[in-house]
Amino acid sequence: MTDPRPPPQFLRTTDGWSPSRRDAGRRPYRRRVTHVLVTGGAGFIGTHVVTALHAAGHRVTVVDSGHPGAHRRPLPDTVAGAPLVRLDVRDRPALAAVLADGVDAVVHQAAMVGLGVDLDDLPEYVGCNDLGTAVLLAAMARAGVHRLVLASSMVVYGEGAYTCAGHGPVRPAPRTVADLAAGRYDPTCPRCAATLTPGLVDEDDPLDPRSGYAASKAAQEHLTAAWARQTGGAVVALRYHNVYGPGMPRDTPYSGVAAIFRSALEAGRAPRVFEDGGQRRDFVHVRDVAAANLAGLDATGTGTGWRAYNVASGRPVTIADVATELARAADGPPPVVTGEFRLGDVRHVVASPTRAETELGFRAAVGLAEGIAEFAHAPLRG
Ligand code: UD1
């Protein structure tokens, strides 16, 4: 059967991705049955990734630490039919034993996510996300495993892309407490203080992480890029936008806004929309994120080096609109716009999905209306 997706165009870039000599001139994207290790495979996104890998005919092994931030129940023995080994990726001997079982590629989802509560969370973010990735990379190199898909995040960009009418593209400074408290939510031009027009970030935009979590994701990207250079391996880093869908964890300090709104509605409460609700995000359905992982995995079989991709729908929405749609679909109370703010939040971050489409053949398939209608009644993770 012919593959309908466009051929990838891995170009030599500053990221250093190039087609492998082995595959040069051959048709890419032939699906090979591969033994894939999915870290964090019992989590929200990981479970969907495992399901998609299985459906595509891969052999899958799952490792998961059962971190209490993500799991309130004991871990199952299997995820979507794949065996689950309970381990923390920082446990190098245990990880080495799993990798030694003929693993061809790793899909690294294991991470602590969200803004967190306070700076006491910082060591755990760095421990799980950065030390965890470092131990994984060292173990992969030792085991001769050279293909990696990294779950990264749009939080590495900080604020999205902005243009000033007078000064062109600019990068605004982080918003101050004084501005936020006064209801001045939109970033202003650092040169003339004019209100800026938000645009789409692309993968070549500079990294500007603005929370401990964001910094830990940026560090994962740097570590994996260094690993790719040193080992000649292939890394596809997927910068997820706001992921939502069935199995999302219930309301915790580490949950994304969709889960928080959905949990409120389930309890009969109105979603509380911070700032003025005009902040923009890109909500991408978790099954689309799983499909992006599959496409990313295929790409690691056709090239070497390091390459980042936005995983986004390409259809930005405001947080107020998402809350309204979700409340309507759940038949719950309409949202309340509270004017509250969180200092770690950025105002708008939405991205161009073009690179993932042209190079990976990935395009989000689940529309927001359809996804929200499902999500309004889908089970959450307990
Ligand atoms: C989110 C995730 C982040 C993930 C990224 C990309 C969290 C905390 N953030 O970042 O881990 O990497 O998507 O997938 O999990 N808001 C409300 N009411 C609330 C909670 C939040 O209005 O009750 C607003 C926030 O002020 C913010 C927006 O919703 O403007 C999005 O919040 P959130 O999903 O928490 O953070 P992101 O920065 O989008």
Account of the protein in words:
- There is one protein chain.
- The protein has helices spanning 44-55, 92-99, 122-143, 177-181, 212-231, 257-266, 286-300, 319-329, 354-360, 368-375; strands at 18-19, 35-39, 59-64, 78-79, 82-86, 105-108, 147-153, 161-164, 168-170, 197-199, 234-240, 242-244, 272-273, 280-281, 283-285, 303-311, 317-318, 336-337.
- A nine-stranded mixed sheet has the order 1-16-11-7-6-2-3-5-4, with helices on both faces. Strands 9-8-10 form a three-stranded antiparallel sheet, with no helix packed on it. A two-stranded parallel sheet has the order 12-15.
- α1 (44-55) crosses α7 (286-300) and α8 crosses α10.
- The protein has ten helices and 18 strands.
- By secondary structure, it is of the alpha/beta class.
- Residues 1-14 and 21-30 have low confidence and may be disordered.
- 31% of the residues lie in helices and 19% in strands.
- This is UDP-glucose 4-epimerase.
- It comes from Micromonospora humidisoli.
Q: What share of residues are in beta strands?
A: 15-25%
Shape: globular
Gyration radius from CA atoms, angstroms? 20 Å
Return the string of H and E elements: EEHEEEHEHEEEHEHEEHEEEHEEHEHH
The number of strands is: 18
Find the structural class using helix and strand composition: alpha/beta
Overall pLDDT level = 90
- For the biggest β-sheet, the strand order reads 1-16-11-7-6-2-3-5-4
Q: What hetero molecules are bound to the protein chains?
A: uridine-diphosphate-N-acetylglucosamine
Characterize the biggest β-sheet: 9 strands, mixed
What are the segments in which pLDDT stays under 50 over at least 5 consecutive residues?
A: 1-14, 21-30
How helix-rich are the residues, as a percent range?
Answer: 25-40%
Q: What is the straight-line distance between the termini?
A: 41 Å
InterPro entries: Epimerase_deHydtase (IPR001509), NAD(P)-bd_dom_sf (IPR036291), Rhodanese-like_dom (IPR001763)
Region (Disordered): 1-26
Organism: Micromonospora humidisoli
Pathway: Carbohydrate metabolism; galactose metabolism
